[in-house]
Amino acid sequence: MNIAKPIKLVIIGRVNKGKSSLVATLGQNDDIDIAPTPGTTSKSQSYSLHFQKRLLCELIDTPGFEQADQVLSMLTKDNPSASDRPKTVQQVTDSTGFSHNFPEEFELLNASFTTDAIVYVVDAAHPFKRNYESEMEIIRWCGKPTIAIMNSIGEPAYESEWRSVLQQYFSQVISFDAISSHPLQRLNFFKAVGSVLHERKHETDEIIKLIELRDQHKREESIKKIMHYLRQLCEIEICEEFREDFENNDQPIKMKEQLKIKVTQTERHFQNEIAHLLGFQRLKTSIEDLHKLIDSDNLFHEQTWKVLGLNRTQLTARGAILGAATGAILDLKLLGMTHFAGSIIGAIGGAGAALVTSNSKPDKKFAGIQLAGEQMICKIDLKSNMIWVLFDRIFSYTKILLQRAHANPNTLILEKDLACSTNMTSSQQNILTKFYKRSRSKKSKPEQDHLCFEMLLELIQKQS
Length: 464
Description:
Elements: E1 7-13, H1 19-27, E2 45-51, E3 54-61, H2 68-76, H3 85-94, H4 98-101, H5 103-113, E4 117-123, H6 132-141, E5 146-151, H7 159-166, E6 172-176, H8 183-196, H9 201-235, E7 238-241, H10 251-277, E8 285-287, H11 290-293, E9 299-305, E10 365-366, E11 369-370, E12 374-380, H12 386-403, E13 412-414, H13 426-441, H14 446-463
Helix pairs in contact: 2-6, 8-9, 9-10, 9-12, 9-13, 9-14, 10-12, 13-14
């Protein structure tokens, strides 16, 4: 559905009471200046809420009230009737010198003239004071549908006191924690909007449905990225030709370090992609260094000693010899061998071609012939805990961002012991294990991949 005329809401309140935080959380946009310094918002700014290129709602963030008492005195000077009050607010705002003498009030009142409803934000962590009444009275004079938000920058110790006051001025009064807001609070906010905009109730209901669809879409896209990331991890390989001085060089150590770097880069790339997908542009994180988690028990060096390009299915027992039952002529130069170049090997009743697959250095000579063309591969051992550690990190990271309010300025701390995978059933673990193996072999089975997708989606929905 296309919202023919997007609902416009202006956010008003005193400085530093969470107006910008509310806008950031509702709009799921952390690219909004939020700071403990009063006056961070000096001009009215509009932020749009979209889903699939559809404009759902426009939120206008405004500067805070600074001189409400003086402005109310100007409004009440000629004692206009209730029917003339909205017009009086317009006249006073347009009067000579008002924008210069009352810049904050000029910005917020001008924004309120074209809005569908006014949202007033207070901090229920601090007590009500009588000088707030001037602000609420000015809002009432605007003649617009109104909602009061009791935001809590801290413990909401005075919520009951605030509610009794706000209910005298506003059509709807709701609690809303902009910093640790759960997705359901966003939906409740728009339900409150629908209750005060009676003529546009159908549109607000549609907005709620589209917001729910948008949230589901983000979960689904997040799972797709997780699966893509896991495929990349399973496919990472560091391959090098085996050196003659294997026992005396640091080749395996260097290969492992290369693998660490590659895995770390892949994880960081995923974190950036998922943060961008979920609307976090300024996110700060504190995540345990992946290098510390990768040790010799979690990675392995697989040595594959290749001759004639034969594959694993053609491997025979260690110690078998080159040759064929019928005899063969073999130019050892073609194998890259360093000894007996050009020699002719007769029939030796062997087991075909011979390769060694042990994780230790092989004997270099079989039947008096020195082998060459060996390759060493370093990759994540799918039988170890490492692939599950990596899964836990990315799954937890995604789950936390799906729940995180965009106004939250705190550094995201990812704990060491995440253990998401240990809470999975054996059936779920089996589905994911099979996905790892398919990814390693670069085989895709759409039906099984979709089963894995559905399983991960259900898992993240239950935990979000």
